[in-house]
Design goal:
It is a single chain. The protein has helices at about 20-30, 40-55, 80, 105-120, 135-140, 155-165, 180-190, 220-230, 235-250, and strands spanning about 5, 30-40, 60, 85-95, 125-130, 150, 170, 195-200. By secondary structure, it is α/β, with parallel strands linked by helices. The longest helix has 17 residues, at about 105-120. It is globular, with a radius of gyration of 17 Å. The two termini are about 20 Å apart.
């Protein structure tokens, strides 16, 4: 049986404090073999690295999330952490137009600095984008050869086409299990098989019948089953394809 990869789960959140071992054990029992834990600031990056050192199933991603650019614009701490052998990506980084008082120019400067680091270190990026779809493709075109994934994808068909033209992967999370998530479900059905990844975004995204605070990597097989059904794919074949995709992106090294 192919082991699944949860390409985005925030086990470094205080929400999981004191129970990460149990969460990892449940994930492994459910057939999830690798968990990518992204940072949002320096403290969470260090927490992700500590988890990656403690649990063989965990890999870390390091980066400054756009939500925190308003209070922390220095990214000098990112580069030294990228040399850690358990770091497999730069993230979670990106653009967000829904932040009160945001400075778009400052947000873009920080984003570009981290894209440059990812390319310099030959690492993929875990991308967050909200209400800035107009700018994301234009910026990414300035970094040819960059590998990355749009996490928790729920964009329109046009955004999906832009992402695919840029060579990006798209990861589907718990939202795709909800019947009212029309964009996410349509994208899951339409995306090329060799660009599809899976994630839970635990504990920030609910599944149908599972509140966000209860979501964890062990729920990933449910997401796989829904995505496979939407695509008309055999779940085992899709699991194998997503494993190959995670390897191609570089998320399973270390």
């Amino acid at each position: 049986m192919t082991l699944l990869t949860d390409t985005h789960c925030h086990l470094n959140s205080p929400h999981f404090a004191g129970r990460v071992g149990d969460v990892v054990a449940r994930a492994m029992a459910a057939g999830v073999g690798t968990l990518i834990v992204p940072a949002w600031d320096r403290a969470s990056a260090e927490a992700a690295l500590a988890l990656a050192e403690a649990y063989p199933a965990i890999r870390a991603a390091v980066g400054l999330h756009p939500w925190f650019v308003t209070s922390e614009t220095d990214t000098a701490w990112v580069a030294p952490l990228l040399t850690h052998p358990r770091v497999v990506a730069v993230g979670e980084i990106g653009l967000d137009g829904a932040i009160a008082g945001e400075d778009p120019a400052r947000q873009e400067r920080v984003f570009r600095a981290q894209l440059a680091l990812a390319r310099a270190h030959d690492l993929p990026v875990l991308l967050h984008c909200q209400r800035r779809w107009d700018r994301l493709p234009a910026i990414l075109r300035d970094y040819p050869g960059l590998r990355g994934v749009l996490h928790a994808f729920s964009g329109s068909a046009e955004v999906l086409r832009d992402c695919l033209r840029l060579g990006l992967y798209v990861a589907f999370a718990g939202g795709v299990t909800r019947p009212n998530s029309r964009h996410a479900r349509a994208a899951a059905a339409a995306a090329p098989a060799d660009r599809v990844l899976l994630e839970t975004d635990a504990h920030y995204m609910a599944l149908e019948g599972v509140p966000a605070e209860a979501a964890e990597p062990a729920h990933l097989p449910r997401i796989l089953a829904v995505v496979a059904s939407l695509r008309g794919d055999d779940p085992a074949a899709l699991a194998a394809q997503t494993d190959a995709n995670a390897r191609a992106l570089g998320l399973l090294r270390g």
